[in-house]
Amino acid sequence: MKTLFIGMISLFLSTSLVAQSTEVRVKQFNLENGVALQEYDPVAYFTVKKALKGRKEFAYAHQGVTYYFFSQDNKYLFMKNPAYYEPQYGGWCAYAMGNAGEKVEIDPKTFKITEGKLYLFYNFYFNNTLTDWNKNEQVLKGKADKSWAKIITANK
Question: Looking only at Cα atoms, what is the longest distance across the chain?
């Protein structure tokens, strides 16, 4: 009886911790109507090297963050290795994260894959932040990594 009670307590605590981290993760990510990447397929950036709008029927939620996929195959690829396909900095603008440590919206069609990681950028009217990122990528990436780590730590 005592073992059963301890087992139930352990299950409750582990479920609560997972739910809490999922809740925090959802708050950190750039979501529109609960969906990441403005409904664009994260796998397509890697496989066809362009932004493709995902479809609702191929939706998948990973740790509370929902993604749409262009095809069932892309969905399966993502399910096998979500960490590989998820965007950096929760899908916020990489340049803004590196330049000012801020969460700024993105244009999902403005992206770059570097060292197997997906970076997204703000691009509106005459302000394409990918251009600025490319001028000083290594410095901005280092600053963005530190800024994102602070955001994650602050929201735990």
Answer: 68
List residues bridging with 128 in a β-sheet: 123
**Alpha carbon distance 145, 142 (integer Å):** 5
Burial class (CB within 10 angstroms; exposed 0-12, middle 13-18, buried 19+) of 55: middle
What Å distances lie between residue 119 and 4, 60, 86, 93, 115, CA to CA? 47, 21, 9, 8, 10
Euclidean distance between the first and final Cα of the chain, in Å? 35
Q: Give pLDDT < 70 ranges for the chain.
A: 1-20, 155-156
> Is residue 92 located within the same domain as residue 156?
yes
Distance, CA of 151 to CA of 140 (rounded, Å): 16
Per-residue pLDDT tens digits for 10-40: 333 333 333 448 888 889 999 999 999 999 9
Confidence (pTM): 0.85
Look up the domain containing 42 and give its range: 31-83
